[in-house]
Every structure is written in structure tokens, then in C-alpha cells.
Amino acid sequence: MSVLVFKAILVLVLFLISLGIAAYSTYAERKVAAFLQDRIGPDRAGPFGLLQPIADGVKMFLKEEIIPNVSDKLLFIAGPCIFMLTALMTSAVIPWGKALEFGGQIYNLQVADINIGVLYVLGVVSLGVYGIMIGGWASNNKYALLGAVRASSQMISYELAMGMSVIAVLLMSNGTLSLNDIVASQGTGKLYGFIDISGMNWNVFYQPLGFIIFLVCAFAETNRTPFDLPESESELIGGFHTEYSSMKLGLYLFAEYINMFISSAVIACLFFGGYNFPGIDYLGTVLPHNVVSIISVAALFGKIFFFIFFFMWVRWTIPRFRYDQLMRLGWQVLMPLAIINVLITGAVLTYFGN
Q1: Is the pLDDT of residue 63 over 70?
Q2: If you ran DSSP here, which 8-state letter would residue 273 be given?
């Protein structure tokens, strides 16, 4: 099998996995909310309610599709499409596991190992704001427009602190912008230079402040509580997607969960070693290479599912911020902390060396 065919299959598999996780994240969200609120949650569609996402998807497709007469119809349709497209594109540079080997041919579990992978992620994520802004503008509804303005200003503000927190990680990784190299570097070497823990030389141990900043910014970028002001129904009805119905609304909702999935994957890759796990080197000596690769994929998805649960846990625990509090946190707290973190990281690396 040629590498090109393998990449095409990998793209299709990632597309299906992203859609599946987005669909069942809605089910998981409702189950987590029910658990935290001492309820049962969905339990009617299928055993334990496992068919609820399929029922919701069918409902979305069958609902009446309404396009307001006063809207810009072309942009109205383009908004959710752009938002969904940018959400799906981000997964292209994420290394999902160690490479597979068949017949002497190496197949990397990464669609594109480009040397500017981190910039690609930040760039594509920033394009997602156009999907929200276009949707709010094209609706010709003042509540939708206000939601879009809120979302765009929020996402742009928190992207700055997020980018600064990533710079500190890049300094720890010898300046490489390749996500594959960043993940690989966390599976080698000794923790703090002298503690030998195979596969656990993770950046979170060196950059705890950077991790916290990135995590908070990820909540803001995905419009999750307590940063869900763009969809604040008490003030804006439904925010930027107020006028949307049927599957166009479904695309916005799906894209939000896909963004949460990809954000969790990026957090795992930048700070928690990606597919690396304790004992990965030892397993490589006693198990076949492809078996270790499959275990590494499972390890990465385990970390991803933990952070998805954490996103949901926070949503049903912490109340929503006011908008002035949200912007103050981004500009007056996270941004200075991110700059200080970069300066301290640079100083420590300069003094002690890499």
C-alpha cells in the first residue's frame, strides 16, 4: 500500500472519528451533567440512551430549514460551513501515535508532518472566528451580531495569551514548530535532568503556568463555560446562531464539540507527551512494534477523553463570567502572566542551558 493511499485512509478515519466523538460528546455532556446534578440523563433511545446522538442527528436533518428573508443568503450558508471546515482541518498536523510498519514501509499516524505545525494549528483556529462573524453578520439580527462581535473579540483576545504560552513550550523543545518533534522530545531524556522515567519527560512538569494559561485560553477559544458569553441565552437569546435552524445549527454545535476534541488533543501533545506514556520504551523491547503503536494511540485518546470530561465538568461547576471580567482576565491577567512565563523560561534556559 502506497503512503498516499494510507494518508487518504487516515484522513477518512480521522473525519469519521471527529464526527463520532462530536456526536457522542453531546451524549456524554448530558450524562456528566446528570451525574453532577444527581439525575439519570438520557436513557430512552437505546440501551443506556446510547442511540440518543443518532436520534438528535436525525431530528436535526428533519427539522424545518428557515433562512430569513432579510439575511445575506450566501454568507448565511457559508458561516457554519467555514466554522465546521476549520474545526476539521486542525487535526491534520496532530501525531496520533507512533508510526506503524508494514512490509518494511513506515506509515506515520499523522496526515501532514509539517515543520510549522504549531503555527498551522494557531492559524487555522484563528480562521474559525470568520465562521462565527459571518454567521452573525449575515443573519441581519442584532442579537446574532452582538454574539458574533463578542465571540470574535473574545477569541482574538485569548489567542494572544495562548500563543505566548506556546512560545515557552517551543523554547523547551529547542525551537521546533513540528508537533511530531515536540511530542517525540517528551518521550526521551530524564525528567529535570536526572529522574529517569521512560516516556514521561512531559512539558507540563516544566511549564505548569504555561499549561494553566493554555487551558484557560482553550476554554475561551471553544466558547465553553465560563467563557460562553457569545451564546449567553439570558442576554442574546442564542447568540451568533440565533437565526439558524436544522443542520446549519447542527454544524455550529458539531464544530464546537470538534474544537473541544482537537483542543484536548493539542493540550495532550504540547504538555502531556502526546502518545508517550510511562514504560513505552520497555514495551518496545517486549512487544511487537505495531502493538506498541496501537497502545500509544490508546494512550493519546485516554488523555483526550480526560480533558473532554474536564471541559464538561467545569461547565456544570463554574458560573458564567460577566463580559468585563472575561476581557479583564484575558488582557490584564493571562497576557502578563504569559509574557512573564516566557521571560523566566528564556532566562532559565540561557543560564542552565538546554
Answers
A1: yes
A2: -
* One-letter identity of residue 219: F
Chain center to CA of 76:
25
What average pLDDT does the segment 270-287 reach? Answer: 87
The DSSP annotation for 71-125 comes to S-HHHHHHHHHHHHHHHHHGGGG---SSPEEETTEEE-S-S---TTHHHHHHHHH
| Within-domain flag for 55 | no
- Position 338 in a domain: yes
Radius of gyration of the chain measured on its C-alpha atoms: 21
User: How many alpha carbons fall within 13 Å on the CB side of residue 82?
Assistant: 19
DSSP 174-207: TT---HHHHHHHTTSS-BTTTB--TT---GGGT-
The mean pLDDT value for 234-247 works out to 77
Cis peptide before 208 (omega within 30 of 0): no
> Which residue type sits at 131?
G
Domain count, the chain: 1
Per the domain annotation, does 306 fall within a domain?
yes
Q: Nearest 5 degrees, angle CA 14-CA 20-CA 26? A: 135
Mean pLDDT of the chain: 87
d(CA 330, CA 333): 6
Q: What are φ and ψ of residue 107, in 5° steps?
A: -120, 110
pLDDT of residue 120: 92
Q: Give CA–CA dist 80/121, Å, rounded.
A: 19
pLDDT at 211: 95
CA 184, 188, 193 angle in degrees (round to 5)?
135
Q: Dihedral (C-alpha) 337, 343, 347, 348: value to the nearest 10 degrees?
A: 30
**How far is it, in rounded angstroms, from Cα 16 to Cα 248?**
19
Q: Exposure of 330 by Cβ count < 10 A (0-12 exposed, 13-18 middle, 19+ buried)? A: buried
Contact criterion met (CB below 8 Å) for 93 and 269: no
Structural domain contains residue 147: yes
**Model confidence over 335-345: pLDDT tens digits?**
999 999 999 99
Angle 145-151-157 (CA atoms, 0-180°, nearest 5)?
135
Range of the domain at 158: 67-99+113-352
Measured in whole angstroms, the distance separating CA 230 from the mean position of its chain's CA atoms is 18
Which of 11-15, 24-28, 103-107, 203-207 shows the lowest mean pLDDT across its residues? 103-107
